[in-house]
């Protein structure tokens, strides 16, 4: 009896669906964390917070919100 498992089949649709699910999970977690953080500090939230790094700076409270949200969202993923 062999200890090795049978070779796995190649499922590109499954891989693509897993990538899409992981990206959706990341952006939903990021959006939730940014929404909570920005509502606590009373600042505006825009798509720039999602897709650019100009708001992620350690000199302001909103910058720390963005940094924390990105770290937590990556841990969720």
Key features of this structure:
77 residues; mainly alpha; 3 helices; 0% strand
Brief characterization of the structure:
By secondary structure, the chain is mainly alpha-helical. It has three helices and no strands.
Q: Can you characterise this structure?
A:
- There is one protein chain.
- This protein is elongated.
- It has 3 helices and no strands.
- The protein starts with 11 loop residues before the first helix and ends with a helix.
- It has one domain (12-76).
- The relative contact order is 0.16.
- It is an all-alpha fold and 77 residues long.
Write the layout of secondary structure elements.
Elements: H1 12-41, H2 48-51, H3 61-76
Helix pairs in contact: 1-3
């Amino acid at each position: 009896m062999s200890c090795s498992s049978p070779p796995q089949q190649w499922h590109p649709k499954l891989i693509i669906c897993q990538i899409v699910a992981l990206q959706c999970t990341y952006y939903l977690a990021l959006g939730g964390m940014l929404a909570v953080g920005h509502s606590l500090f009373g600042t505006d939230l825009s798509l720039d917070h999602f897709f650019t790094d100009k708001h992620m700076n350690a000199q302001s409270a909103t910058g720390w919100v963005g940094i924390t949200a990105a770290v937590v969202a990556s841990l969720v993923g």
